[in-house]
Design a protein that fits this description.
By secondary structure, this protein is an alpha/beta fold. The chain contains 20 helices and 8 strands. It has 2 domains: 235 residues, Alpha-Beta Barrel (TIM Barrel), CATH 3.20.20; 241 residues, no CATH class. Helix content is 55%, strand content 8%. The chain has an 8-stranded parallel barrel, surrounded by 4 helices. α2 links the parallel β2 and β3. The protein is elongated, with a radius of gyration of 28 Å. The two termini are 38 Å apart.
């Protein structure tokens, strides 16, 4: 299966009898357009030990006939993804029609008795439960005996709708912690897992040392499948059978994440063999290649951070006036302000370099937050709720975090320059506030961001996995330092430019941090239900 030259990291393969278990295993599947290919997929799944598939509504009855003959249950889902309670209610008439057609096509097929009402609706709200109940009450009298209903939940700790359906599936594709997710489900009702898997970076170096390599995906399944076999789950779906070939696939993962047991060409990955042996003969240990070295792509982040500190060190070394301003700012702030006002500040190029370095710091901090958020449900929810254009942009930025850092830093620097231009306009009639002076007064108060950058470098160097709490603290400290820098900079600018208090407050309100806060409050006011949904997802 693997080249003999690669080092094994686990024991040689052992064969043991599969443990008795009531857990059924399935796989998320997007049926190929070609009927023969679809039949080949289902046959291969059955041979591997899968007894269920999770997919969209099947319109071809002959495909269900194949599933009937193989004894594979088909879990079909309606087309409603990551919806607020109001959106679920508004979609009920459309979903009724879609469900009616699905029930008609599935009639007489024993494999097609499971129907998913929605993917990640806001089931922490009672009005969402009422809308789902309307669908179930409509469908049960029209469905064949034995027909059952489920939905996929993203809210295991706050879900209120489990009594509406026959089964709740929890989605773990974003977290790689399926047993912890089951433990978070406090309801006593039937529960399963809608998607268990680990995403793969096609450019990652091979070997289990590398976080998103194919071998690491296989190792993940080798670890969790025995645990899930002994869990309380009724059904577990691996995510997924094959990487989607097009954007119309059933539940493609956000940000171009790929999870397939096969790639888009049909090539089997190591995880396929692991899943097959684990499910058919109960094998629990596998020979997987260790690889030649860890794939540390985050070193680019640390390198850019070091360049920021190097740039500051160089300026301290080449500019005595800049070196003298540092203690003045902290110890004798009035002298610092007077030096800027009288034109005895550091050379003009120093202010420009400081502004550029500030933009780099903003970009790097944004990069770290984005990297940590990409696998979070809030970003996934935003992706599902966005149009094709926004999805494409998010996918492109996720594939190139350096580009994201450049854009974020550029936007932050532009916002700062725009704010300073407003100050210059206000001060033009009272004083001769030059651009280098304004830049110095605006950038100096942002010095706490250097501490945040150092903390971010340490976190990224140690790995972002499991660092959610630390990153949340950095984000809060970042917002606080931005607010403080705005207040401190506004006071300094007001003194040097000799504007009155009213003008100072007016231009403080035009600062980027205040405008960003106002924008967030406006979004909350315009669509409080959607804002509440994102807050719930951030809490996950």
């Amino acid at each position: 299966m693997y080249p003999k030259a690669l080092l094994p990291v686990l024991l040689a393969a052992m064969t043991v009898a599969p443990a008795a278990s009531q857990v059924r295993f399935g796989v998320v599947w997007n049926p190929p357009a070609d009927r023969l290919e679809a039949e080949a997929d289902l046959t291969a799944m059955r041979a591997m030990g899968f007894s269920a598939v999770r997919t969209g509504i099947v319109e071809d009855g002959s495909l269900l006939s194949i599933a009937d003959s193989l004894g594979i249950s088909v879990y079909q889902e309606l087309s409603l993804d990551v919806a607020t309670a109001s959106e679920v209610s508004a979609a009920v008439p459309r979903l009724r029609e879609e469900l009616s057609r699905a029930l008609a096509t599935s009639d007489g097929h024993p494999s097609a008795t499971w129907f998913g009402l929605a993917y990640a609706p806001a089931t922490y709200r009672e009005d969402a439960c009422r809308a789902l109940r309307q669908l179930v009450d409509y469908a049960r009298p029209r469905a064949a005996p034995g027909t059952r209903f489920y939905y996929v939940s993203w809210f295991p700790g706050r879900d209120r709708c489990s009594d509406v359906v026959d089964l709740v599936l929890l989605d773990d594709a974003a977290h790689d912690r399926p047993t912890a997710l089951l433990a978070a489900w406090r309801d006593s009702g039937p529960v399963g897992l809608a998607a268990v898997g680990r995403w793969i970076d096609p450019g990652a170096s091979p070997g289990v040392r590398n976080l998103h390599s194919e071998e690491r995906q296989a190792l993940f399944l080798a670890d969790v499948l025995p645990q899930l076999r002994a869990s309380r789950a009724e059904v577990v779906f691996l995510y997924r059978w094959q990487d989607p070939v097009d954007e119309g696939a059933f539940h493609p993962a956000p940000l171009r994440r790929v999870h397939g047991l096969h790639d888009e060409t049909g090539r089997a990955r190591p995880a396929r063999d692991v899943a097959a042996r684990a499910l058919t003969v109960g094998q629990t240990a596998f020979a997987l290649s260790e690889g030649q070295g860890a794939d540390d792509r985050n070193s680019v982040f640390v390198l850019f951070g070091l360049l920021v500190f190097l740039g500051i060190a160089v300026m301290l070394g080449v500019s005595p006036r800049f070196r003298a301003m540092a203690p003045r700012y902290f110890v004798a702030h009035g002298f610092y302000r007077s030096a800027v006002q009288d034109g005895r500040e550091a050379p003009g190029y120093v202010a420009s370099v400081l502004a550029v370095l500030l933009g780099v710091v903003i970009g790097l901090l944004s990069w770290m937050v984005f990297l940590s958020a990409m696998d979070g449900l809030a970003v996934h929810g935003l992706w599902y709720r966005s149009g094709p254009g926004a999805r494409g942009a998010m996918d492109a930025l996720a594939a190139n975090p350096v580009l994201f850092a450049v854009l974020a830093g550029s936007v932050g620097l532009f916002a700062l320059v725009f704010w300073l231009s407003a100050w210059s306009f206000a001060a033009s009639r009272r004083s001769k506030l030059r651009a280098p002076q304004a830049l110095l007064l605006a950038t100096w108060p942002r010095w706490p961001m250097l501490i945040l950058l150092l903390a971010a470098m340490l976190i990224v160097a140690a790995g972002l996995g499991g660092r959610t709490r630390e990153i949340e603290w950095i984000v809060m400290a970042w917002y606080g330092s931005a607010a403080w820098g705005t207040v401190r900079g506004s006071l300094d600018l007001a003194r040097v430019s000799r504007v009155n208090a009213l003008v100072m407050v007016l231009y403080w309100l035009l600062s980027p941090v205040v405008l960003l806060t106002v924008l967030a409050l406006a979004v909350q006011a315009l669509d409080p239900e959607a804002a509440g949904l994102y807050r719930e997802l951030l809490g996950r």
